[in-house]
Write a structure and sequence with these properties.
The chain is α/β, with parallel strands linked by helices. 22% of the residues lie in helices and 29% in strands. A seven-stranded mixed β-sheet has the order 3-6-9-14-17-19-20, with no helix packed on it. Strands 2-5-8-13-16 form a five-stranded parallel β-sheet, with no helix packed on it. Strands 4-7-10-15-18 form a five-stranded parallel β-sheet. Strand 19 and strand 20 form a beta hairpin. The mean pLDDT is 94.
């Protein structure tokens, strides 16, 4: 992909970036779709081979991670994941801008992280006019099932995002946040400690 175009797209500027307009853009999308298809055909028992493919696909990834199938992303090289990551099934990442995920992050099933947005006017949207904004997820974050994280959002360290939420704005560190739009509800404190049965 054209580095200048990528940098402009990731800066949040509105650009013509439809796959038909920019051959490198279309090729990068197609190559990534093929890579995701291949990974998704590998059985869970081939964990080492799956990890090797993810390491080739992503910009960077920690030592230990599990990503269940199906998984989809747009480019892969914009995804940077820390150590001890778990991504449950049907996770999708639209990584036209960087997506940075910290250590010890759990993402539940059916979650989407989107960095890309399209023009509101149909005439402009049909021309492929779009922009992208980075998403950052801190360390020790749990994102529950069916959550959508929208462009430009930062989720602070230790936050928990409740199931079904649509995260449209930054979430502070150490907070439970829920809803559509997602809003901080309360800090997570020592009173949330649970006693497991042994």
């Amino acid at each position: 992909m054209n580095n200048c175009l990528f940098d402009t797209l990731a800066s949040g500027a509105w650009i013509h970036a439809g796959a038909g307009d920019v051959p490198e853009f279309g090729k990068a999308l197609a190559d990534c779709a093929d890579a995701c298809f291949h990974i998704n055909q590998l059985p869970p028992s081939m964990a080492d081979e799956r990890r090797r493919h993810f390491r080739r696909l992503f910009g960077s990834v920690g030592e230990t991670f599990v990503i269940h199938s199906p998984f989809r992303c747009d480019f892969g090289f914009n995804i940077h994941i820390g150590d001890n990551f778990i991504g449950n099934f049907n996770m999708s990442v639209l990584d036209e801008a960087p997506v940075t995920i910290g250590n010890n992050v759990f993402i539940g099933p059916n979650c989407c992280i989107a960095t890309i947005t399209h023009a509101l006017l149909p005439s402009q949207r049909n021309e492929g006019i779009m922009s992208a904004h980075p998403v950052t997820i801190g360390h020790n974050v749990w994102i529950a099932a069916n959550v959508t994280v929208l462009p430009g959002v930062t989720i602070g360290d230790g936050a928990v995002i409740g199931a079904g939420s649509v995260v449209t704005a930054d979430i502070p560190a150490g907070y439970l946040a829920v809803g559509n739009p997602c809003r901080p509800v309360r800090p997570i404190t020592a009173s949330d400690t649970v006693i497991p049965i042994r």
